[in-house]
Amino acid sequence: MSETSATNEQFDLVVVSNRLPVDRIVDADGSAAWTRSPGGLVTALEPVMHAHGGAWVGWPGMPDVEVEPFDEGGIRLVPVPLSADDIEQYYEGFSNDTLWPLYHDVIASPRYHREWWDAYKSVNQRFTDAVAEVASEGAVVWVHDYQLQLVPKLLREARPDLTIGFFNHIPFPPYGIFSQLPWRTRIVEGLLGADVIGFQRQADAVNFQQAVRRLKGYPTRRGHIEVPVVDETPGVRVYGPIKPTGPIRTVVAREFPISIDASIYDELARRPDIQERARQLRADLGDPRVIIFGVDRLDYTKGIGHRIKAFGELVADGEVTVGDVVLVQVASPSRERVVPYMELRDEVELMVGRLNGDYSTIGHSPIAYYHQSFPREEMTAFYLAADVMLVTALRDGMNLVAKEYVASRFDDDGVLILSEFAGASDELTRAILVNPHDIEELKRAILRAMELPKRERKSRMRQLRKRVFDNDVAKWSNEFLEELAKARAAAND
Ligand code: F6P
Description:
Blueprint: E1 11-19, E2 22-26, E3 32-36, H1 40-52, E4 55-59, E5 70-72, E6 75-79, H2 84-103, H3 114-134, E7 135-144, H4 151-158, E8 163-167, H5 175-178, H6 184-191, E9 196-199, H7 202-216, E10 220-221, E11 224-228, E12 248-255, H8 262-270, H9 272-284, E13 290-297, H10 304-316, E14 325-332, H11 339-359, E15 367-370, H12 376-385, E16 388-391, H13 400-408, E17 415-419, E18 432-434, H14 439-451, H15 454-470, H16 473-492
Parallel strand pairs: 1-4, 1-7, 4-6, 7-8, 8-9, 9-12, 13-14, 13-16, 14-15, 16-17, 17-18
Antiparallel strand pairs: 2-3, 5-6, 10-11, 11-12
Helix pairs in contact: 1-16, 2-3, 3-4, 6-7, 8-13, 9-12, 10-11, 10-14
The structure holds 6-O-phosphono-beta-D-fructofuranose.
């Protein structure tokens, strides 16, 4: 990949996210190269950037990497360096040990540290400065995710000429939970700097509007929020509704459910070498009658323990037979220095070890567990081999894995079990929907999925595929960018 230095250029479309869509790797001989970084966001936005051209501002994924902006795959990449302290306090701390658990229904306890908040503010300011430098006059800036919620306001102050969109990839919690956050008013004000604020589900947008009413008192009506151009009470919670007196701007806050580039998975799955790989995987697993598959970042929001518990009870009760059925669980390493993630790894691996220890036969184990990441080609082969796909998230903004599975099943076969707490369940209603907290229901769903007649499997999968192909990532980004264009037109009126 090239590392052409390219400074001082400005762009009409700027995307900003915590991570750049690349990671820097240094070989043993000291030479450096870039690789694609993991994560649904990258997968989702790559085609948009290719189609529109533009710049992407983000962290290169390693501490203290100082590189000039460079071009990769037709996109200008603008690295924002983070020090080891920034990573500890802004990324691992405030983003992933405060906001992440808070926004996911406090499945783990959020930790509130003032130094983490200070780091979050200062890193958000640095991202803002980097964007302000590369955005052309009147450019469109699209800010992504919970790590950068202060950027919209900071950017509006620095560059009032810009049209600013924000998309939240994770859930936005009900006010009763959000209100725990000591800096809740600042976060809401930060987001209200945008012209359009996108959420995964309608419920998230409603939660946000409620936070706005409760904390700032601004009127909200059917996804439109009236925000004073000048906030007379910054950082202050306002009790009761206020009618703004000076000039106001309208902020749109509504759902834009994200998706995937479905054709990529469909095309991969149709490749003979990938199909051969799927057959090989089945053979390597001992040719079981049923492969049940789960793939997630190793995160406590994903309900990995719940699915192992349910499957383990089926094995223990003799309702599934080892060798006849196997659960393949890929748990890709994630946020490995954050305490709850370390604890989760221990818990999951203890469960896997116990189950396999108790029930493996010579040659067959109930669970094949991989604490690894696999390339997209290998994932698609797994999807093709999987008779049952298990998505048991306890809370998830969307869950793109569910959509990837569906997009890969060009043969209209395979059964998706999907948690109703994943955003994808709003659209993928022909999956077998489950409450993953209900272990008995989960067990029944697994047994039902394994025995579903072929006709029903096909009819369900056809309908799921229609939803995923009709609502792909291109549609998502076009709709968001169109809403931003409308916001810009209204502001110029
Ligand atoms: O969508 C949630 C998210 O945190 C994205 O912002 C990120 O790209 C992905 O999950 C992976 O998380 P991380 O960047 O912390 O590894």
